[in-house]
Amino acid sequence: MNYRELGNTGIMISEVSFGTWAIGGAWGKTDDTGALKSLDYAIGQGVNFFDTADVYGDGHSEELLAKAAKGKQDQIYIATKFCRQGDIFDPQNYSYEKVSSYCEDSLRRLNREAIDLYQIHCPATEILKDGQVFEVLDRLQREGKIRHYGVSVETVEEGLICLEHPNVKSLQIIFNMFRQKPLEKLIPEAYQKGVGLLIRLPLASGLLTGKFTADHVFEADDHRRFNENGEAFNVGETFAGLGFSKGVELADQLKWIAVGRKSMASAALRWILDQKEITCIIPGFKNIKQVEDNLTALETKAFSEEEKQVIERFYQESVKDFIRGPY
């Protein structure tokens, strides 16, 4: 395993880490036994950072992480998130009383005395512009309930707003071969300011595995079925904002990236890790096989400058005009 510093916090985290939305819920059938075995396997491979949220299975993924990290709390860093249990547009949802309550609930489920990284979970843009939530997080930090805090954002604009606040130590962003806009301004500015970058949806909800055909049908409780067009939450959180059939078409055009590499998925992850500014990727998983597959990115051949230019042109000419929603 390779490790990179989380911004300027001094914390070294595995460059391939994992998100736990899929084992909590909203990605089809879940299996706690398989999830715990997968977490244990990942930890055994040197993964020391996991991302979760209080709404993943209504806190269930936090509880699973507590079980997996039992006896290893000092070795495993956990990032969790808050605000989406309430109205993300209501300023009262970000009051000290409310956030403190969210924090205490997460601490109880995680069985921890402090949260390593506490993140605002894709709040409304106006909340970030107002900025009072950062004062609340400063207070929780002074109280010792959280060690560091960051923000999971939907857009480049939101990320840039967060960078104006010096105690924001990380940004969690959507970034992959289909979502390259952050490379223009947000990623370099975050790196220059010593802010860590956690990459969610590195495989665009599975599109960049190259395994789907346009006629694939997802399970009813999988967000890739019920949120394809943003029916339940931000459209960018599903297939990086692309419609499924268009995403499959574009993924087919990228299959060349697997040539000379372990797989299309490992190549797509490697491309992200080739950006020196990135702290880590946090792909999801449901079983040991998926953990193993994601870890192959560590051994996958880096991209040449010529290949990177081809991928950038592909995004500019064939992809960006089909992404729905603000990003």
TrEMBL record:
Could you list this entry's UniProt keywords, alphabetically sorted. Oxidoreductase
Q: State if Oxidoreductase is listed as a keyword.
A: yes
GO molecular function list: oxidoreductase activity
Q: Which SUPFAM superfamilies match?
A: NAD(P)-linked oxidoreductase (SSF51430)
EC nos: 1.1.1.-
- On the tree of life, the source organism's domain of life is Bacteria
Instruction: Note the Pfam families from the entry.
Output: Aldo_ket_red
> Which PANTHER family does this UniProt record tie to the protein?
D-THREO-ALDOSE 1-DEHYDROGENASE, NADP-DEPENDENT OXIDOREDUCTASE DOMAIN-CONTAINING PROTEIN
| Name this polypeptide is given | Aldo/keto reductase
